[in-house]
Design brief:
The complex is a heterodimer of chains A (260) and B (254). Chain A has 260 residues and is mainly beta. Chain A contains 2 helices and 19 strands. Chain B has 254 residues and is mainly beta. Helices cover 3% and strands 48% of the residues of chain B. In chain B, the strands form 5 sheets. In chain B, strands 13, 15, 16, 17, 19 and 21 form a 6-stranded antiparallel beta sheet that branches. In chain B, strands 1, 5, 6, 10 and 12 form a 5-stranded antiparallel beta sheet that branches. In chain B, strands 2, 7, 8, 9 and 11 form a 5-stranded antiparallel beta sheet that branches. Chain B starts with a helix and ends with a strand. Classes of the chains: A mainly beta (260), B mainly beta (254).
């Protein structure tokens, strides 16, 4: 998969694609207490920030730790993925691929049976908030069709990932949808990559052959196609309504349609 | 070289690599058993006259048939259709295939079509396409191979060139791909400077590429090529048909 960076520089050689004035940001915490949510990073005013990945280390001598990545949306802490199991004396890394806006936070919720011994490092890139890289997300789901993203007029949306953005990784780390279920029971859903004018659950746009069914407090990552042109939209069909403790998101870079 | 490389990545010395680019999503919706041509907005896709196109992402398949299936790729140019990949499995358990993981699909011109042959029905597919003017520096070479030495590309007068990896948009890092209708094939590609003769020292790969029956490819060096430089390939084709392709940048001498 071509990196967004390469695509941007080839399409717009005189513009600072893909991330204007980007810089890494510190996001670290050591010996994190359990049964707490510990903030790692707050996106400052005038900026966006991409949380690329989270690395955890467990220095405990014998017990496995368990940590949720958490997104604070301005009012609520929201678990993002299945709790990450970190073996004793071991580390674990996950791709997060989420763009924060000003005031939003990235944190970790330590649900280990022991306190301390868990350290966390998030890889975060901060950039100007005018950069057309964004994460769109839903925090509650209706029964049936739910539209997550619609490509606006005048844009071409390129669903991207940290690795694609930076030109790292391989084709095995393409654009994806993340679906976390903390509703209290199993949820089932299907994914649809729709063209403008299609119904949200058009069978010929369906991406998964059998229904995806994340259990409570677990997540699913689904591979999705890259490009959407104006009016194209990405939707999921959910088995039942879920008004709390869900987080579904994809990340897009929107290029001006005038050039592409 | 660093400046040159930076200049190239930034759009070939300030000149955009893609002229009038257009991004499209190619689709096969509810594909059927046999050949299925990639479509855009319901019409079999070929670049319009005066335009070329290339696939710049992996191909995603969603197999809704309920059972595992296989798929392979074909490329139509004029009256000929060429198989350009081995057969790959497409699971029915929500796993989509990163089809082009080890290969780059040919650059398409007006009249070219990309086809996926399914051993099942009810299979959706997506590809990401970038379409651009013929005047763009990005070009593709595709040639049927005969027994002996075949010239795939010669840098024209007043031009320079470099093989290009269109899968990750990397200049000065190339890849060549090929397919033949037999299981084993002795294939030796050559990078030949203008005026030099073919010998081992000009071989891209001194070792024989023994099997090209499965649409195999290999990394090739991609130095700056000058007028008259050529890329050639020798085969021991006897009864089989074989073809090879790669992508390159061709731009005015700097």
């Amino acid at each position: 998969m071509i990196s967004t960076n390469a695509l941007g520089t080839l399409l717009f050689p005189n513009q600072p694609f893909p991330l204007s004035n980007n810089a890494p940001a510190a996001a670290t915490a050591y010996n994190i207490a359990n049964s707490t949510t510990t903030n790692l990073y707050t996106c400052p005013s005038g900026k966006k920030a991409m949380v690329c990945m989270l690395k955890l280390y467990n220095s405990h001598g014998s017990l496995t730790g368990s940590v949720y990545p958490v997104f604070y949306d301005g009012s609520t802490n929201r678990r993002m993925r299945t709790a990450i199991a970190v073996g004793a004396g071991a580390s674990a890394t996950i791709i997060v691929n989420f763009v924060l806006t000003a005031g939003q936070k990235f944190a970790v919720e330590n649900v280990s049976s022991f306190s301390g011994s868990i350290s966390a490092w998030a890889t975060i890139i901060e950039f100007d908030d005018g950069t057309p890289l964004s994460t769109t997300y839903l925090t509650s789901l209706s029964s049936g069709a739910n539209t997550i993203y619609t490509c606006p007029a005048g844009k071409v949306a390129f669903a991207t990932s940290m690795s694609a953005l930076l030109g790292q990784g391989s084709s095995t780390t393409p654009a994806s949808l993340s679906y976390y279920n903390g509703s209290g029971g199993t949820l089932s859903f299907s994914m649809y990559s729709n063209q403008a004018g299609d119904s949200a659950t058009e069978p010929t746009n369906r991406l998964n052959s059998t229904t995806l069914s994340p259990a409570n407090n677990s997540s699913v990552i689904g591979q999705i196609p890259s490009i959407r042109t104006p009016g194209d939209f990405f939707a999921i069909s959910n088995s039942i309504a879920a008004s709390n403790n869900v987080l579904v998101y994809i990340t897009n870079y929107e290029f001006p349609l005038g050039a592409v | 070289m660093t400046d040159a490389l930076n200049g190239l990545v930034k759009g070939l010395y300030g000149i955009p690599c893609f002229e009038a680019p257009k991004c499209l999503t190619g689709r096969i919706r509810n594909g059927t058993l046999g050949d299925n041509t990639i479509q855009v907005n319901g019409t079999n896709y070929t670049p319009p006259s005066g335009r070329r196109a290339m696939i710049f992402s992996d191909v995603l398949f969603a197999n809704l048939s309920g059972s595992a299936a296989t798929v392979f790729a074909k490329f139509t140019r004029g009256a000929n259709t060429y198989t350009i990949s081995d057969t790959q499995s497409v699971s029915s358990s929500n796993a989509m295939v990163s089809f082009s993981r080890q290969r780059v699909l040919p650059v398409m011109s007006n009249g070219d079509y990309l086809i996926f042959n399914y051993a099942t029905s009810s299979c959706n597919a997506w590809v990401s396409i970038i379409e651009f003017d013929d005047s763009c520096f990005i070009k593709g070479a595709f040639a049927e191979l005969s027994n002996g030495i075949n010239t795939l590309y010669t840098v024209p007068s007043g031009k320079q060139a470099s093989v290009f990896n269109n899968r990750d948009m990397t200049p000065f890092r190339g890849a060549m791909f090929g397919y033949n209708t037999e299981a084993a094939r002795q294939v030796i590609p050559y990078f030949q400077k203008n005026g030099s003769s073919i010998n081992c020292s000009t071989s891209i790969s001194n070792s024989v590429v023994g099997v090209w029956g499965s649409g195999a490819g290999f990394q090739m060096p991609a130095p700056l090529m000058n007028p008259g430089d050529t890329i050639k390939i020798s085969t021991n084709a006897t009864t089989a048909q074989a073809w090879a392709w790669f992508t390159y940048l061709e731009f005015p001498t700097q």
